[in-house]
Design a protein that fits this description.
homodimer, alpha/beta, six-stranded mixed beta sheet, about 40% helix
């Protein structure tokens, strides 16, 4: 068989990355990253509203051009690579990141009439301006269409499709009226590559539709016009300008259009895979299978698990979504996530302590010399709200247990621990509902570089922490999807499992729970859970807050008295 | 009348300061500060126990010599000053700071046999090693002698006399056995100046005895031997080696001994005033009278009020003490305090943010540009426990409301606000029990230098904040006491009110509450109080924690929307 290659393109929060991958073994031949030039590291902000986060669609298009060209050019320096052996392209993106488009499927923001209007740009996943709309949608759905909420955890989020579009209608009705349709970034890029020029022709992925837009084949697609009418008549009218059907990965979103083929020097008509969210393709690129819990650890964290569609699984309260085919066809994709992980550490080290890379390294080295429980601190990891399992963007951070001797490294470690406890809450919730989790695979820079972070996670969750072989699991997953979409005849694969077996891997290094640390963290997790439920407003929460500080001091004394030395 | 002078000597946590004062108008002619050379800025620490804080008595004695000599030498450069017109010496100190002494009233720590043993040194006020003993004393007194607890707020503290002496007996019985007696630092220095050589001859001040050692004329002095026997037979045996009676200020603790007169070139036999705690003499030096609440704001804060003994006032739960004559004769002295105020800001700026003086100034300037409520943060000021009104050294700090945008200046301001809310809880508790407070006078470096701090206090407490005229109110109060003790015939005063009227003053600058800020702080104080009671373990506390974070966001949104500009 001739060698064959696919391209994976990963649209992150601050940059887009393209990789060229050898289908035979998943080896990356070329990679290129393009930092979005607009706003603050690619994010358009509003000084008057900390909840606002938008992106300039022009950055996406320039980023597509530059990153793919760069990756191909790098691959060209590898022996044997030929552009005419590229058989497909896959794309993953952040989400829900909807953008308003005109009748030719072009982003409104590219039109000079709208380019100054932040509402006409892409509404980045972490935009939290739509909290009121999200609350109303939850309320109305709970009353009139509870089935819509069941598979998405029971609460509609301000980060999602309908909240954002409705908020646009409320605060920028001119933009709403000017939009022919709205498109998820995950669908926009494949459609762009395929040369789609009508919004109704954009092929929509079920991962965005099912997890963010209350789409399900069970009720025939998007929420009914009658339901949308309850929100606003204009949303009901928009429904017919959106889509009727959404698809799992594996079928093509289109074929590479002649102008893009020419731009990149690639064969015209090669397969464009279905777009997908970064976390979902990251799970594919991390070798997800039944029983695997994949954590894409970045500024925030997305967690994925799958369960065969033949296992009828229950709706899981607080879990962002359970969608047939959203990760791989034939499986329910289960998605959860934490709104801030790397971002909390970055906040602490950079915004509060005023340091940079070297302080990250210093604090992480100091933190690694502390024993679990030794600082007497406990934190809640809610600086950016709580996505799972409380689904409340209005929650905020908390640190307690400080004395006059508490150091910045102790707080740094307490913040890592808080995110680990937050992760454990998610794992426990999924297990409670009958989905087995017997291994945890992490990917992302923190997983690869921050050993103290990974050890704390192993100890706090009580599971070995494995690391995805590729540092770019989402892009690799998109490339895997492209290889499956292109098919075995073209040099790709007939099945997902075969593609994953050949193209993905795990690192040898892994982190194993330490029994003593586990015992302390079990106790601290109990206290975390009390605070979590009390401040999270969980109905019937029972916390003995009057003893929390004393209990932490008691853990601290035992940790200090423990014969075990500090851990490396 | 010939001019007359007194000397005030103030033993602080890190240094001792002496001032030479003109009795006619309170003018300071000379001042000198001696930094204790031992330990960490004068505090002996134990790396294995963060609760331990001791001091080397040799520092006290060298400090006495150096500071008084320095102040006299500085005064000598002022026209008209003559050492032979010095008519008395007053001393104030931290407390409860007991030290074990031998049969000749010399500190054990000065004996080479004991100098390496931390238990033989002075047990600094903020030593918190004796929490278990304090809890036991509270428990036993509650059962067998509740009258002992009533005037000291209902809870015996780990910072106090009996807790510390008992802890010494428990952890260093050899030191306990070697001690003939124990002496408060406030009594030790006057006795040293008076040449006292037997522990039973040390004249004891009622301010230490009444506030810290459960002494009261009502039950005939110290706790009964029968009560002490319940703690430990050796404590009962110690009782007879301590004292039978304690005295208010106004009568002499002794006369200046010949060797010290010679050392300083002062007249032999001049009056040595009764020793007293820094806060109490600070209140005198700040012009305390009925209706005045004096706050000595430093690393921690001591608060004082007085009420005429003719007003029978009730015991006030959680208030450290109500003692007849402890501040001025004829008045109940009411003492309260916060375990950390300046220390919390120092912790934040220096330990966490890694800055120094310039960062203090920078954060305080930035904090002054923030509006009340604007940060969305709320903190508890318990990094060093809570002295009043919870009396629990095992409480710890808490910060909540953080987002990924929270700045260090916002947290700095939130920590100031937390201490202001803590101060308000104290004012409210004292008022609840019928003691009027109609003006607040602050003294200490923070009061003089940190305008944003003072404005926040005015707004959060809802009272104008006045500033004591002297930056060294405690030393000035000790000098006032010396002038009263010396008496009118010697060139001093016959009454306290006359001495205060002539020797103390207020600064013209004062801080007035802003109505808008007050309204926001009233709301935030309500939330503070919920957290305070919940985490403080107050019986029957009712907190709606599930909405706290959302309510803070709501305050924040209103603060941001308020038409008023940021305040200077």
């Amino acid at each position: 068989m001739n060698s064959a290659y696919t391209i994976g393109i990963d649209y992150g929060t601050n940059s887009v990355r393209a990789i060229v991958v050898d289908c035979s073994d998943g080896r990356v031949l070329g990679t290129s990253v393009f930092d979005y030039p607009s706003g603050d590291h690619g994010v358009l902000l509003d000084a008057g509203d900390v909840h606002l986060a938008r992106q300039n669609p022009a950055d996406y298009i320039e980023g597509l051009r530059m990153s793919v060209a760069g990756a191909l050019s790098a691959a060209g320096r590898e022996a044997g690579f030929r552009r005419d052996r590229v058989i497909g392209i896959g794309v993953d993106t952040t989400g829900s990141t909807p953008l308003p488009v005109d009748a030719r499927a072009r982003p409104l923001a590219l039109d000079p009439r709208w380019s100054k209007n932040l509402a006409a740009h892409a509404w980045l996943w972490k935009d939290h301006t739509s909290a009121d709309e999200a609350a109303r949608i939850t309320e109305i759905a709970a009353r009139h269409a509870p089935e819509y909420l069941a598979p998405i955890g029971g609460t509609y989020s301000s980060e999602w499709w309908w909240s954002k579009i409705w908020h646009c209608l409320n605060v920028a009705p001119d933009v709403f009226d000017a939009a022919e349709s709205w498109v998820e970034l995950a669908d926009f890029i494949p459609a762009l590559l395929a040369g789609v020029t009508r919004p109704r022709d954009v092929v929509r992925c079920v991962c965005a539709a099912g997890h963010k837009a209350m789409y399900s084949e069970v009720w025939g697609g998007l929420p009914s016009a009658a339901f949308l009418e309850r929100l606003h008549p204009k949303l009901a009218a928009l429904r017919s300008r959106l889509y009727d059907e959404a698809w799992p990965p594996g079928r093509p979103a289109g074929q590479l259009a002649p102008e893009w083929a020419e731009t990149f020097g690639l064969p015209e008509g090669i397969a464009i895979a279905m777009g997908g969210f970064d976390a979902h393709y990251g799970a594919v690129g991390s070798g997800i299978q039944t029983g695997t819990f994949v954590k894409i650890v970045g500024t925030s964290t997305c967690d994925c698990a799958i369960a065969p569609v033949s296992d009828r699984i229950a709706d899981i309260p607080g879990i962002c979504g359970i969608v047939n085919g959203s990760i791989m066809p034939g499986y329910f994709g289960i998605e959860a996530g934490q709104s801030a992980v790397g971002d909390i550490l970055k906040w602490w080290v950079e915004t509060v302590c005023g340091g940079g890379e070297s302080l990250h390294a210093e604090l992480s080295a100091e933190a690694s010399r502390l024993r679990p429980g030794q600082s007497g601190l406990l934190a809640l990891d809610w600086n950016n709200g709580n996505r799972t399992i409380l689904v409340d963007p209005r929650l905020t951070g908390l640190i307690l247990g400080q004395t006059l001797h508490t150091t910045r490294a102790e707080i740094y470690r307490a913040l890592i621990e808080a995110t680990a406890f937050g992760a454990r809450v998610i794992v426990e919730r999924i297990r409670e509902y009958g989905v087995a989790i017997d291994r945890v695979v992490c990917c992302g820079g923190i997983a690869e570089k921050n050993d103290v972070f990974m050890q704390i996670y192993a100890d706090a969750i009580g599971q070995p922490m494995l690391i995805a072989g590729s540092p770019q699991a989402p892009a690799l997953g998109a490339a895997v999807s492209a290889a499956v979409t292109a098919g075995a005849d073209a040099g790709g694969y007939a099945t997902w499992s075969e593609a994953q077996r050949r193209m993905t891997s795990l690192k040898e290094k892994q982190f194993t729970p330490d029994p003593d640390a586990r015992a302390i963290y079990d106790e601290l997790h109990g206290i975390y859970r009390e605070l979590h439920d009390a401040f999270g407003g969980v109905r019937g929460a029972r916390a003995d807050l009057g003893t929390v500080m004393r209990r932490l001091l008691s853990v601290r004394q035992r940790a200090a008295a423990s014969p075990a030395g500090a851990r490396a």
